[in-house]
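Meet our chain:
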Amino acid sequence: MQNKPKAELTAALMLLDTRSMSFDMREIDNRRFMFSPQTGELILGRQYRGGQLYKSHAEEHFDSGAKAPFDSFIRGWIGTGRDYPDGVIHFAPNIGTDNIPAFDNAFSTLQMFSENGAAGDTVVRGFGRKWEEPLKDIITPTKERSKTVSEQEKNHAAVEPGAFSFQAMQREAEKRAIESALSLAGGNKSKAAKLLGFSRNTLYLKMKALGMGLKRK
């Protein structure tokens, strides 16, 4: 981590200026994040306890007093645990290589986390073409794009229409993101929708479109 004053993390909603403050993401159990690469503002949602959710991303953005507009933030959740001792960074919604500005902002987000406690074996979900991969496969020790990530961008720019089904990949990524959110929320769709940053009705429509079961609460 860089030589900056270290912020003391609390369970409450927090707004950090990562340009002047550092933190250790390994101290985070499970909470949502929003990051603006343009301003360096990092919003950490309230710490989850027992699957309990409090507010949506939009509500937490408003309550935080952040200066950057909501749509400029890269969103998701982060945390550590028994299965992820080095932590997990989960982008929600998923970041694909088709949207270069979002892809670049998500990469900047990973750089920020790598400077604040994320390790090579920290798991990254919902970034690029792979659902899950270690941070070391994305960022080199010098904080630059790995060869694999650079090739993803080049291949997306050069690939001919119809060479592969990006829509199918996107559907699979969305399905896994919803499954992860439902698992974290204990099957509660209202809580899962808040995790994903959209309404319960939108979640139902997405699940129906993806052919996912709708029997759970």
Confidence is low (pLDDT under 50) at residues 157-165.
